[in-house]
């Protein structure tokens, strides 16, 4: 009786094991590029968020100053230091004052990994509006 039980037990054959390995390899080949794409997209989104924070900090700085502000501001000028909680590694923003009407351009942000991206005010404000209007939160 004991011999019958032992004879009927079988393990995986080499072919079955190879088939499982091939299937796992195919899944990995599909998943790895998708995960990399998601990670790259999140890094780009993080740069855009940092650029928006620099833009908003520049707007607060302009509003707080008693004298008209114009020119380029970057991380070395420390002008936005009080308005940025966690500033990007490097940033530059150009402020233009036309008869009291301020505009912001040449917004360049570099993250801690050394990736740099340039933005303009209109694009950042469009992105900010689209993220606030398409959010999933109901607010109530």
TrEMBL record:
InterPro entries for the chain: N_methyl_site, Pilin-like
A Pfam family hit: N_methyl
Membrane-crossing segments per the record: 12-35
Keyword Ligase assigned: no
Lineage top rank: taxon: Bacteria
This protein's record includes keyword Membrane: yes
Keywords, ordered alphabetically: Competence, Membrane, Transmembrane, Transmembrane helix
Cellular localization per UniProt: Cell surface
UniProt protein name: Type II secretion system protein
Organism: Metabacillus fastidiosus
Organism lineage: Bacteria, Bacillati, Bacillota, Bacilli, Bacillales
């Amino acid at each position: 009786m004991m011999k019958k039980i032992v004879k009927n037990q079988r393990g995986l054959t080499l072919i079955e094991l190879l088939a499982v390995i091939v299937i796992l390899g195919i899944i990995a080949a599909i998943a790895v590029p998708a995960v990399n794409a998601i990670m790259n997209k999140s890094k780009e989104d993080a740069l855009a968020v940092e650029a928006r924070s620099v833009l908003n900090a520049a707007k607060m700085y302009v509003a707080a100053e008693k004298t008209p502000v114009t020119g380029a501001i970057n991380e070395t000028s420390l002008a936005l230091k009080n308005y940025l909680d966690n500033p990007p590694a490097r940033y530059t923003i150009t402020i233009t004052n036309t008869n009291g009407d301020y505009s912001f351009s040449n917004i360049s942000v570099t993250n801690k990994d050394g990736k740099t991206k340039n933005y303009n005010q209109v694009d950042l404000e469009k992105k900010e509006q689209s993220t606030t209007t398409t959010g999933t939160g109901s607010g109530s």
